[in-house]
Amino acid sequence: MMGLEDCSPSLRAKKLRWRAMAERYQASLAAKRRGSFSRADWLEILEVHDHRCAWCLRKAERLEADHVIALGRGGEHEPSNIVPACVRCNRSKKDRVVFYMLEVA
Ligand SMILES: [Zn+2]
After folding, report:
1. Number of neighbours of residue 71 by Cβ within 10 angstroms
2. Same domain, 62 and 28
3. Ligand 1 centre distance from Cα of residue 31 (Å)
4. CATH number of the structural domain spanning residue 46
5. 94 CA distance to ligand 1 centroid (A)?
6. How far, in Å, from the CA of 35 to the mean position of ligand 1?
């Protein structure tokens, strides 16, 4: 494989542009995988749900961020896919997704 040093200046410039583009693309993919979910988003989600568990609707001291559609099933780590869940519900979650979605819709 030819190194950048062996290229003509114009080809080198093109390669550098391509590399920068590829790096931006990789970075955007990584950001997508991580999703965009900030602490402020979480506080807003808690507010919307009145600091209650989205599944059993009980007020819980400790609420965890729960993915409505599991990441493994293609859900995203972003506010529209996150609800507060009490520890018990989060641990025992099965197929409550459907019911929850119906309630909200
Ligand atoms: Zn619960």
Report:
1. 12
2. no
3. 30
4. 1.10.30
5. 12
6. 24
pLDDT higher for 2 or 51? 51
Same structural domain, 16 and 52? no
Number of structural domains, the chain?
A: 2
Domain that holds residue 85: 35-104
pLDDT per residue as tens digits for the range 58-98: 998 899 998 888 877 888 888 889 999 998 888 876 545 54
Cα 41 off chain centre by: 12
d(CA 38, CA 60): 21
The total number of residues shown for the chain amounts to 105
52 CA to centre of ligand 1 in angstroms: 8
Q: Are residues 92 and 63 in the same domain?
A: yes
- 23/54 same-domain check: no
